[in-house]
């Protein structure tokens, strides 16, 4: 059963055609990795899925919500669609634990004791339970990103979007974050869509790989087929440069 459906989707920034004829279905429970050169439309595609970017033509259905309809309630949609950004956007004046508890308290009206218990479980899952009472400024960038992942999971999303979650991190912090994402995608039945430049990680975690270039989907294949024998010259060239460098 599909969680996400793109039908002939077009996205423009004034005269720039950012997404061109996007046709794509992602099933519930899939982990899909989006790769491609910078400026290929990966982040734009992901941001249309929770309405941060609006499409100009075509049809986009996410978790049974028609995002191409003017009647769609994006607040309701976003309760089920979590997003982890390149930057962490933690509240600087709240502790790590309070950052995770905030949305479930306000949006889900979760009882305080249950909220605290579940937030601590999530912190334990991302390996940061001992940092619960720290302020964001007291932990590293990699740790802040792991808190941001826990914060997204606190809303119990059906779909989790990752927009280059390690691109703002120092190299030595990247692996800890990738390991957390791998754990999240492997133990839950959530649908995950991950934009990344980390090819080794993509090989490990993905069910499918989507390769984009110049606003278009160039290839969409199972990870084994894509990495062993890409079908297009453009994808082969991209992978050869990644592997070489």
TrEMBL record:
Keywords: ATP-binding, Nucleotide-binding, Transport. GO terms for molecular function: ABC-type amino acid transporter activity; ATP binding; ATP hydrolysis activity. PROSITE patterns: ABC_TRANSPORTER_1, ABC_TRANSPORTER_2. It comes from the Bacteria. InterPro entries: AAA+_ATPase, ABC_ATPase_HisP-typ, ABC_transporter-like_ATP-bd, ABC_transporter-like_CS, MetN_ABC_transporter-like, P-loop_NTPase. Residues 4-239 form the ABC transporter domain. PANTHER family: AMINO ACID IMPORT ATP-BINDING PROTEIN, PHOSPHONATES IMPORT ATP-BINDING PROTEIN PHNC. Belongs to the ABC transporter superfamily. This is Phosphonate-transporting ATPase. It comes from Bombilactobacillus mellis.
